[in-house]
Each structure stands twice: as C-alpha cells, then as structure tokens.
Amino acid sequence: MLPRPEGDVLVHAGDCIGSGYPPKLDDFTRWMGSQQHKDKVLIAGNHEHCFVR
Fold it and tell me: What pLDDT, in 10s, does the model give residues 14-38?
C-alpha cells in the first residue's frame, strides 16, 4: 500500500472493498478509522453494492 501523506482530511474515492459485500466493509472501516487524519471522507465506488439502497 502506498504511504499516505500527513494532513487533516483523508479522502478515499472509490472501490474500497472491491466486491461490495458487507463483511469486507468491516475490515475497511477498521483500517480507515485507524488512520491519523482528523476527518475522513469515503466516496463509494461502483463496486460498493452494500451502499446502494
């Protein structure tokens, strides 16, 4: 994984879990929550079916 620059906001744009199934989302949210950035933004990609209603 590439190093993330320091900053106040971390933006992850698209395909965070690949398959779009909720069990993988748990791993991703733990990872995202462990990052040092004060604010975090997730933009779901076209494979994140678990965000579609």
Answer: 788 776 567 778 888 898 999 999 9
